[in-house]
Amino acid sequence: MVDFDVVSLPETDHVAEGDTAPDFTRPLVNDEYWEDRALADVVDGPTLLLFHPMDGAFQGTYLYNTVDDHGWSDDVDVLGVSISTPYAHKRLLADRGDGVRIFSDPGADVIEEYGLAHDIDGMTGITESRPAVFLLDADRTVEHAWVASEHPEFPDGEAIDDAVADLVD
Amino acid sequence: MSEPQITLYRLQACPFCERVVRTLDELDLEYRSRYVEPMHSERNVVKRVSGARSVPAIVDRETGVTMSESANIVEYLNGTYGEGGA
């Protein structure tokens, strides 16, 4: 823990528990190729939808290490979203995120729609995503939602474990 | 959503791939694009479906045909879906 206040992010009207996760179409990257896919077509069971800062930032690295450590992709479909290009996603998936697929949203329109936009100081013109976790059922109903309110802030792996267990049991 | 019957494995900005796209558009055929990496060694999915790592490659579930080489593909598409085709 640090002995100073971390940066708080402003209140945001984000997608929340009980909402239907908004549909979108973006290139979806797996470890072999990418193609345009609609979220509504990809979600056919319990799905963990993870928004994260651009590939290469340590937050994404930690996130996918956590995904692998907890083995969530064994129990649910795990989908990521970041502003990075498909090429960057492929490099990320070569190292971690076993079984994960990641949407590419460079214009951050999906990120904006989910209420997660974050303008990073000192990177003019780049709209980032706050870290956020949405656990969806097969109808895209949000069963569990967490959105970062500090910068940086990391999702609670134990809370996600519990939410996944509740949904798949 | 109905899935297009034709899948095109392509590389961004590959002129041979764009040639195939032009033919698909001319014939008003629906297709899905799967983009792969420039590095040959990174194209195992193409090798698995077509037997070779070269792009473009198409898979046509309508006819069961899988094919590489843009000239072959264009000829196949025109012969199958063009004027006077089957």
TrEMBL record, chain A:
Pfam families: AhpC-TSA
Molecular functions (GO terms): antioxidant activity; oxidoreductase activity
InterPro entries tied to this protein: AhpC/TSA, Thioredoxin-like_sf, Thioredoxin_domain
Source taxon at top rank: Archaea
Residue stretches making up the Thioredoxin domain: 15-169
Signal sequence region: none
Protein name according to UniProt: Alkyl hydroperoxide reductase/ thiol specific antioxidant/ Mal allergen
UniProtKB/TrEMBL annotation, chain B:
Residues annotated as domain GST N-terminal: 4-85
Highest taxon listed in the record's lineage: Archaea
SUPFAM superfamilies to which the protein is assigned, alphabetical: Thioredoxin-like (SSF52833)
PROSITE patterns, per database record: GLUTAREDOXIN_1, GLUTAREDOXIN_2, GST_NTER
InterPro entries: GLR_AS, Glutathione_S-Trfase_N, Thioredoxin-like_sf
The name this protein goes by in its record: Glutaredoxin
